[in-house]
Amino acid sequence: MPRRAARLSVEDVILEAVESVVSRTAVAISRAITEILSSRLDEELKRQVGKAIGKKARGTVRLAGASRPRAEITRWTADRRARRVPTFVIEQTGLKTKKQVVAKFGDSAVFEKGKPAPKAK
Description:
With 121 residues, the protein is mostly helical. It is 52% helix and 5% strand.
C-alpha cells in the first residue's frame, strides 16, 4: 500500500471515498445478478425437464390451442356449426359431406347412433 502524503488534496479524498463505495456496490451487484440468474436457470431447467418427460409432468395445465380428448358422438345435427360428418352418419346415409347431407335431409335433420336415419325431404 502506498504511503500517504501528509496533506491530501480534495480530489484524493473524493477518489478514496468513491473507490470504497464502488467496490462494495460491485460485490452486491454481482451477488444479486448471480441469484437472479440461478433462479431463472432453475425455472428453465424445470420447464425443459417437464417437456422431456412428457405431458404427465405438466399436470393438468393445458396450453392454449390444445384440443380436448375426443368423446364419442351419438347425436348429430347438420346445422351451421357442424364441422364434419361423423362416421355413423356416413354409414347410415352413404353421404360424406355436410353439404350433401343438408341437400338430402334438410338443415335441421337430427341423426342418432343406433337409430334409423330421418326421412329425406
